[in-house]
Amino acid sequence: MPYVLIINAAVSLIMGVALVLVWRKDRAQTFTRYIGFANLVQLWVPVIYGGMRYNMNAWQTPGGIALSVVAGAYTMLLILGTAQLANRTLSRSVATIIFISIASIDAIAVAWGGIYVAQAAMGTFNTLVGVLCTYWLWKPNATRSPSEKLVGPLLILLGLVQFIFVAYKLDGAEPLAAIGAVLRVALGLVLLNAALDRSTMAAHQMRRRFERLTERSLQGILISLGNRSIVYANPACLAIYGVSSLEELWVATVARTIPVAERATVSNIIAQIETDQISDASYEAERIRADGTHLWLRFHYFPSEWDGAPAVQVLISDETERHKATQALVHQALHDELTGLPNRASMIKSLRTRCVPDQANPSFVLILINLDRFKLFNEAHGPSMGDNVLKAVGSALRQVIPTHCEVMRLAGDEFALISAAHGKGDHAVEMVAAVKQLLGQPFEVAGQEVFVDASLGIALYPNSARDAESLLRAANAAMHAAKLTPGTSYRLAEKAFERGSSNALEQEQSLRVAIENEEIYLVYQPKVDARTGRLTSFEALARWNRPDVGDVSPVDFIAAAERTGLISTLGTALLRRACHQIAAWNKEFGTCVPVAVNVSPLQLLDPRFPNLVAQVLEESGVLPKFLTLEITESSAVQNLAQTVTQVDQLRAMGVHVAMDDFGTGFSSLNMLRSLNLHTVKIDRGLIDPLPLPNAIAVVRAICQLAEALHLHVVAEGVETTEQAEAAQLAGCGELQGYLYAKPLRPEHAAQWMMSMADTRSTNY
Ligand code: C2E
Ligand code: MG
Ligand code: MG
Fold it and tell me: Which residue's alpha carbon is at the smallest distance from atom 11 of ligand 1?
């Protein structure tokens, strides 16, 4: 085989491989793949032709078929490639039709007309492909690079040179191979150049597209070469920092506003990304804009490159609004709306943080402050006044308590203080002193002067308890213990108080059983005429001797019954018991004195209460005049209108109603006037200081008022003859107290009744 055929085959091979490799590098350049494969297919033409020429007999038929197949494949690949170059797509079926048609025509031409006719046909087809390509790529509206425009003419030439073989027969084979090889090299170079142009343009377009994306992005984008410099910042990044150039961004903002403490963290992230230790990192921090406003930014770092050097790309989102909203929510969750002080959740959080063993200086003090009688105050003056008092107390506490101590409002009328303790709780002493001094002064609220008392419970960590919940329980129990002392008072946490609280729960449980088993009974305390000292009436007082525990004060178990809703059952049972006792005494002695029964505000405010009283009187056969009901101010304070109606109904039945413990609470004169009462009982607290002159003055004033309102007056808790004389002189008609008798069992009370009956001086 002559060298020229080998060179032709080698050129086809080299150009084919080069074009296919270009496609492998840039898959978008599909035309290089098709034309590359066309070259590789074309490579077989000189090989087959050589075989046919120098080995005529054996190669004639298979060589002819092979040449037809190669011709079909070559033309089909050429058409597919040029169509791609012209941005057209041909379907597989069209490509298959082209292949089959050309291969068949070529085969028929070889069979009927011989190799020269076939060559003429192929030359014609290839020239037409060149013409079609020229038409596509030279269209006036198509913008094509010069190298692309050369493809069509070169293909035409490649088609036309095939006619050399037709014209010169065997002598033309070698010139055809030589010229074909040259043209093929030229076509290959032109296609490579076209592919390069296209790649460059695509890269350029891509860069423009990304530039537009970054320039218009609302997110800040910044590229930094390590910690040394910023090489790119998009407009959003400049806008976030409020600067107009990269220099300003670096000098005026980033370098200055990253706090020193954070610099090491940021440098570390950048170094780790640059050295591929981590693939990305996120970070949120506060920064300061050029105009001084505070920003909350979120940074997302990941590796990038800049001019061939490793770089770090940073995406910056301005999260200031979200951060503010989150902060506001956190603040809201941890603060009390009314006073602006940290709330209960905040206190629990603080306690839990502090109650950690093995801390360097762990001890601290927790003080719970509960305002005394605040509920009544609220009910009397209205909730908005109550709110104002709480606000005033909250801000006054914040002012007097040192700033390093925490001041919180837990709920309602409850506040808390927390302070790191030094020594043996000397902080607690200082704080309690400050609170006491504060509450010693009146609060100016809505133009009024208001005095507030509070009960303080103090717990020390770690002495009182070692975890947040137990510490709080201890302080709470101490605060409740302090409540028992009138006025502002404080108690230090003791285990006994806590036992008291858990006992309360247990007591509530056993109270239920006690009521069912009738363990609660009545004792009767005589009231006597202030002048003659003779029995006028009894007060029925409840007693509970709890099995295995002993006597429980009625103050405790009545309060427990009120808390648990057992009071109506218990109250009804006691009323029934008292009425049956009156009936029994009436039967035994032919007469009786009135018996006063204490009524809880919860009972009185039940609209069915007067009916219940009527029913009990009827079933026990007791006349209403023998029954007095002692009510307290708090029921009237809770609902004056309803109390007035209830009292009116009771009076209409003939039952007497007495106001108990007068002088301790609000002692509202209006209330005294509005209610249709029979008696006022002056509280022991006012009788106790008798015969001090100012105490006499107070009692006398109440008696004068009662006289004006046609009310009887009973002095409670008379223990000495001096008190008795003073009370009588001040105007009290009846006296009750240990001076005359303690509350008595019915059989002992009966002895008093007997002496009454003996003297037969009673009008009852
Ligand atoms: P109260 O109705 O004001 O009862 C008077 C309290 O003073 C009684 O205490 C009585 O024992 C006590 N007392 C009487 N004279 C003297 C005295 O000279 N010196 C001293 N230091 N105390 C005296 P008690 O029995 O412990 O009752 C306390 C409170 O419990 C009563 O106060 C009343 O509010 C309530 N209570 C007692 N029994 C009942 C009841 O059956 N029903 C209701 N709802 N409450 C009751
Ligand atoms: Mg009473
Ligand atoms: Mg009383």
Answer: 743
Band (pLDDT 50/70/90 cuts) for residue 502 is low
Looking at residue 544, what DSSP letter applies?
E
Nearest ligand 1 atom to the CA of 718 is 18
- If you count DSSP H runs as helices and E runs as strands, how many of each does the chain have, helices first? 30, 21
> Would you place residue 437 in the very low, low, confident or very high pLDDT band (cuts 50, 70, 90)?
confident
The model's pLDDT over 222-265, given as tens digits with 9 standing for 90+, comes to 888 876 678 889 999 999 989 988 888 877 666 677 777 788 88
pTM: 0.45
CA distance linking residue 47 with residue 69, whole number of Å: 14
At 165, the amino acid letter reads F
356 lines ligand 1 (CB under 6 A): no
C-alpha 632 – ligand 2 centre gap (Å): 8
* Alpha carbons 435 and 446: distance in angstroms, whole number: 22
Give the nearest ligand 1 atom to 719 CA. 18
- Centre of ligand 2 to C-alpha 418, Å, is 41
For Cα atoms 231, 233, 239, give the angle at the middle one, nearest 5 degrees: 150
Distances (CA, A) of 318 to 185, 238, 240, 630: 58, 12, 7, 70
Does residue 244 contact residue 259 with C-beta atoms inside 8 Å? Answer: no
Report which ligand 1 atom has the smallest distance to the Cα of 554.
Answer: 30
Task: Decide the pairing of beta strands 443-445 and 406-411.
Answer: unpaired
Structure letter (DSSP) for residue 442: P
CA of 667 to the centre of ligand 1 (A): 19
605 C-alpha to ligand 1 centroid (Å): 21
Question: CA-to-CA distance for 58 and 581, rounded, in angstroms?
Answer: 143
Beta strands in 351-425 (DSSP E): 364-371, 406-411, 414-420
